[in-house]
Amino acid sequence: MSRILVLTLLGDDRPGLVEQLSSVITAHRGNWLESSMAQLAGKFAGVLKVSVPAEEAEPLEQALAQLSALRVAVECSMDSAGAAPRHRRLAFSLVGHDRIGIVREVSQVFTRHGVNVEKLVTHVSSAPMSSETLFHAEAVLNADASVDAAALKADLERLSNDLIADINLDELVG
């Protein structure tokens, strides 16, 4: 029987962190399943899903706590096979002038419609002509079959006018 562990990682960015982390996981017969890692403001940050034999879960957690270069938080989780089935997946994207509160305003719309954020990736860039800062967001959303996609899109479009942003929402197939 294996266990699924979800790790969150944070430390000062430097070469060798992923190798050090993967060595500890491998030494405990862990299987690296999914991850998302990035360098943010000089810090190494990430999330990681690992499958490990049940008898190795606690020793792995103890070994991860001994890593001096990374702070690692470990949560035991159910495998995704035990999760509720996805009814509808939506792709969301936004490009607009950067300002405080964009993520909050968009996430409030998602919450009003009962939409869950499955994945969110954001970044800022300079606008080509004006050098103003643009905010970019891409998300994969999980919604119940009963969610009114037209109403969600209309709510997002109203927000788009307030934010002066280009917002797209599309149904994902498969």
- Helicity range: 25-40%
Sheet/helix structural class: alpha+beta
**What is the CATH homology-level superfamily of the largest domain?**
ACT domain
Q: What CATH architecture of the largest domain do you see?
A: 2-Layer Sandwich
The helix count comes to: 4
What is the ordering of alpha helices and beta strands? Answer: EHEEHEEHEEHE
Would you tell me the overall average pLDDT?
A: 92
In spatial order, strands of the major sheet run 2-3-1-4
Strand content: over 45%
Radius of gyration: 20 Å
Main β-sheet description: 4 strands, antiparallel
Tally the structural domains. 2
Briefly note the CATH topology name of the largest domain: Alpha-Beta Plaits
In the CATH hierarchy, what is the class of the largest domain? Alpha Beta
> How far apart lie the N and C ends?
30 Å
The outline comes out as flat
Number of strands: 8
- Poorly predicted sequence stretches spanning 5 or more consecutive residues: none
